[in-house]
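[agent] plan:
  1. take the single chain provided in the ticket
  2. run structure prediction with default settings
  3. attach structure tokens to the ticket
  4. add a short note for the reviewer (M.T.)
[agent] executing step 1
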Amino acid sequence: MSEGVYGEQAAGRVTHSLLRLSTAMRSQAWDWAEGAGLTPTQGEILVLLMQRKGPMRLGEIARETALTAATTSDAVSTLETKGLVEKRRALDDGRALAVRLTARGRTAAKRAAQWPDFLAKAVGTLRGEEQSVFYRTLLKTVYQLEVQEQIPAHRMCLTCTHFEASKTPKKTPHRCELLGITMADTDVRLDCSVYERADAATQKKNWKIFSQQG
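[agent] step 2 finished; step 3 output follows
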């Protein structure tokens, strides 16, 4: 069997496995949402606002969640009716509205962030090295989907100006200069509230170093 054919078959099996995970996550998300009196989309927005630790405009929410403007507006309006979010004029533009969590919204967001625990428990059964390889592989896959413009760009360490990738993370960890912390592969964040997008050259350097490991 040629390497190309084997590669295609392996990619197909990986894709099928991811689809099965997606099915399980969708089912669990709806089970949680129904119990909380929300939809998965509303729960996702609450978690996003909690992660950002500050107000977000509707356009930003739509972009981060890959939702249409209409769907985002409807979901936020429902959350506002439930008293979980509130709209205020944006500090940098009085003509624009920003959305932020209420006290009840923060409580709901914390609960919403816990629904994937079933998956975390499954991943937790993997050995430490397996988790590290798995996470690295997922980050690479997410990055490729971003490059292909299939998903919105994430605020991940590897495209951040503060991140310094290490060629030998097991000996010399990665580092975040802004927070002054060292990071193993599994500490590299997919979404960070203090993210600042790096220039193209820095991004390319970090990804080259990161992708050649493992």
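[agent] step 4 note for reviewer: The two ends are 26 Å apart (CA to CA).
[agent] ticket updated
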